[in-house]
Amino acid sequence: MGTDIHMYVEIDRGKGWETGDEWDSGHVPYDLQVYTGRNYRLFSRLAGVRRDWDIEPISKLRGIPEDACREVRRLWNDYGEHTPTWLRLDEILNADIEESQAFLDAIRGLPLRYNLDPEKIRLVFWFDS
């Protein structure tokens, strides 16, 4: 059994953080999730999870944001397993991520998709094992 990431997009249009994902019956369909890969080197870089390599995480773990949107908060309360944290998109884009081109390709288009600057987009995520 491996470790998987559960990643959700939140956006701030000036009225607080809201979901940026498309939800269906309380979940984001797998094929619409921003990233679903299983890359342990990336997990180490994002959150220090599965640190089998000497890779420094972008930030210390932050937990679920106090101002998380209701959809993400509910999903974490119902199904979250371990190592919750979040990163703003600008933090990720400014980090030296070499662990996953697929992840970078998935997130680089988010500012255009939402017509927002990267600091107004954050990824909230946790892991299961």
Word description of this protein:
There is one protein chain. This protein is 29% helix and 21% strand. With 129 residues, it is an alpha+beta fold.
- What is the rounded Rg? 14 Å
Widest sheet, order of strands? 2-1-4-3
Helix/strand class: alpha+beta
Q: Runs with pLDDT <50, length 5+?
A: none
The residue fraction in helices comes out at 25-40%
CA-to-CA gap between the ends?
A: 7 Å
In terms of quaternary structure, what is this?
Answer: single chain
Overall strand count:
4
Mean pLDDT: 94
What's the arrangement of secondary structure elements?
Elements: E1 4-12, E2 17-19, H1 40-47, H2 70-79, E3 82-88, H3 89-94, H4 101-108, H5 110-114, E4 121-128
Antiparallel strand pairs: 1-2, 1-4, 3-4
Key features?
alpha+beta, 4-stranded antiparallel beta sheet, 4 strands
